Amino acid sequence: MKAMMDRQEFEAALRQIGAERYHHLHPFQKLLQDGKLTKVQVQAWALNRYYYQSQIPVKDASILARLQTTALRREWRQRIIDHDGQEASDGQPAQRGGIEKWIALTDGVGLDRSYVETGEGILPATRFAVDAYVHFVREKSLLEAIASSLTELFSPTVIGVRSKGMLAHYDFISAETLAYFDKRPVQAKRDSDFALAYCLDHARRPEDQQAVLDALRFKCEVLWAQLDALYFSYVEPAMTPPDAWRPGVGMRADAT
């Protein structure tokens, strides 16, 4: 049995996982932000990433249902609002959610939103990886479920690099296309600060700490696997599975 780490050692171990395993290191991610993908490859990324985005509120609702205090539920509920949006009420303006903003991204690269929303054409590995994440959150302990969200510790810097690179290199990408990413660094910082504090406070035994570390590794693998599938299917060797999206399918009428 490993010895119990102190708070600083435990946080350092979590951050080391991100340094070694977060998907900013993946070849597909580097090609994307360096402007070295074709429009078709960017479209494939946008389409497949939509399925991941669409399932984030689903996994967050599972966590929300297990939280035992009003304060914790209020904190976690904001994540769902961030992604699902909120209608105007009581003098408060409507809030456009992350899913709607991602549809704006797929619109911007020429995909038909009704096609995107059906989930047709996504890669089998995308579906398997995302569904595995949702199942993990439902089936594991609350501590492990919350720990799996700690990849947000590493996303703010990556988002900035990705957005800057895409705007610089792709003439079919605009600031409005990438509006999803405008608020994500702030939201991710808020959410990861909470999740990190929760895990540091509630991992009270060596086995708890190991479970948190394993949960974060698992989530990194979920993100990495999605990019593996995109690279294999649309970059090299470009072996696209049957029924997966191909150029010309699911395109907006004005984009064909």
TrEMBL record:
GO biological process: pyrroloquinoline quinone biosynthetic process
A single MF term (Gene Ontology): pyrroloquinoline-quinone synthase activity
Domain Thiaminase-2/PQQC: 12-228
Enzyme class: oxidoreductase
Reaction(s) catalysed by this chain's protein: 6-(2-amino-2-carboxyethyl)-7,8-dioxo-1,2,3,4,7,8-hexahydroquinoline-2,4-dicarboxylate + 3 O2 = pyrroloquinoline quinone + 2 H2O2 + 2 H2O + H(+)
Keyword Oxidoreductase annotated: yes
Domain of life of the native organism: Bacteria
Recorded metabolic or biological pathway in which this protein acts: Cofactor biosynthesis; pyrroloquinoline quinone biosynthesis
Alphabetically ordered keywords of this record: Oxidoreductase, PQQ biosynthesis
E.C. no: 1.3.3.11
Pfam families: TENA_THI-4 (PF03070)
NCBIfam families per UniProt: PQQ_syn_pqqC
Biological role stated in the UniProt entry: Ring cyclization and eight-electron oxidation of 3a-(2-amino-2-carboxyethyl)-4,5-dioxo-4,5,6,7,8,9-hexahydroquinoline-7,9-dicarboxylic-acid to PQQ.
Record family assignment: Belongs to the PqqC family.
PANTHER family with a match to the protein in the record: 4-AMINOBENZOATE SYNTHASE, PQQC-LIKE PROTEIN
Protein name per its UniProtKB record: Pyrroloquinoline-quinone synthase
UniProt organism field: Aurantimonas endophytica
Chain's gene name: pqqC
